[in-house]
Amino acid sequence: MGGIDYMGVKNSSEEEPLALSIVSSGGYEDHIQDGNELIYSGQGGNAGNDNRKDKEIKDQKLERGNLALEKRLHRGNDVRVIWGVKDVSNPTGKVYVYDGLYKIHESWVDKGKSGGNVFKYRLVRLPGQPEAFTLWKSIEQWKETNTTRVGLILPDLTSGAETFPVSLVNDVDGEKGPAHFAYIPSLKYSKPVNLTEPTARCNCTSGCLPGNSNCPCIQKNGGYLPYTANGLLVNQKSLLHECGPSCTCPPNCRNRVSQGGLKIRLEVFKTKDKGWGLRSWDPIRAGAFICEYAGEALEKLGDDRADDYCFDANRTCQPLGVLPGDSNETPNVPFPLLISANTAGNVARFMNHSCSPNVFWQPILRENKNESDLHVAFYAVGRIPPMTELTYDYGMIAHEKAYQRKKICLCGSIKCRSFFY
């Protein structure tokens, strides 16, 4: 993938080409002057990275894509810029990053490395657009070494408890971190919850597969697997059944997506006005698992106990209905679940409230013989770009002491209720 994409546009009696987008992927002598400016080399001739000494020198011509860029320059219109970058983890060997709209400011002819004439175009990124390619480059650098990053407090606040390290960052003020807590990757029950009727475990030694009518875990989910082959949640359910400890399927079974810790790179960061928050280095697809809410399962929350880091599954939330096939069913929690992450928890404790969230929670039941563990997992409502704060709706409470927990909401959404609990 590379080059100049253009279309023919009728101008009076003749048709002229107009550039729509360009892909800069290293095939020509392109280079960036800074994060917002690109010197782009035209196509054709032998201006590419072919350094054979016996190659015939050929000049580029003002035709096709080159002419389309020239016409776009004179019209003063914008073009889309896409960067192609080497990526050994990608099957194609490259990853392509859309960087937004650029305006062509000037063009000229220069001598290329091969000796032929090359058309050059100076493009400048339009202001006011979200960071894209420069942000992607920064994240790639952080993945290699994060120690020199501005505002870094801890390279891994999990102390190795998760598959990926979770950075703690503050580039807003001088606060050195949240109050101390013990990091645990999963929910802890002080005592098991017994089921009224023991249920069957699955014997899918190669993993649960779609269409297996003999799999009891699939039967519990209405006869189908709740996840795609890529691990995306098909639709929001009132209650989702995952394979439990007594099932014989492997850890990478398609029905164990929320188990095994983090699968994306997250970081805890200081927000401007809402304390600490959570965001991802990676783009997140709709329905992708983000994390579970880890902490201590409680029977009730005492009046004297701090509840700033508490999840109450009995609160009422607005149905989102954003995934294909979603219904307006509210979560069906089989028994009261209250999770305190005040002294021990994971990254989920840092997710802030929003009245227009980009994350939703899903109750998940994992059964083990005659015992049952209810967990709370978080999934993406839609596609979430990198470095976007992750938020969910804390829900509403309806009892006589609700007013005591009422807090001012700063989510900034057009649907903001002005308060949350």
UniProtKB/TrEMBL annotation:
It is found in: Chromosome, Centromere; Nucleus. This is Putative histone-lysine N-methyltransferase chromatin remodeling SET family. It is an enzyme of class 2 (transferase). GO terms for biological process: methylation. SMART domains: PreSET, SET, SRA. The lineage of its organism: Eukaryota, Viridiplantae, Streptophyta, Embryophyta, Tracheophyta. Residues 405-421 form the Post-SET domain. Residues 200-261 form the Pre-SET domain. Its EC number is 2.1.1.43. Keywords: Centromere, Chromatin regulator, Chromosome, Methyltransferase, Nucleus, S-adenosyl-L-methionine, Transferase. Residues 264-395 form the SET domain. GO terms for cellular component: chromosome, centromeric region; nucleus. It comes from the Eukaryota. Coiled coil: none annotated. One of its GO terms (molecular function) is double-stranded DNA binding. Residues 1-125 form the YDG domain.
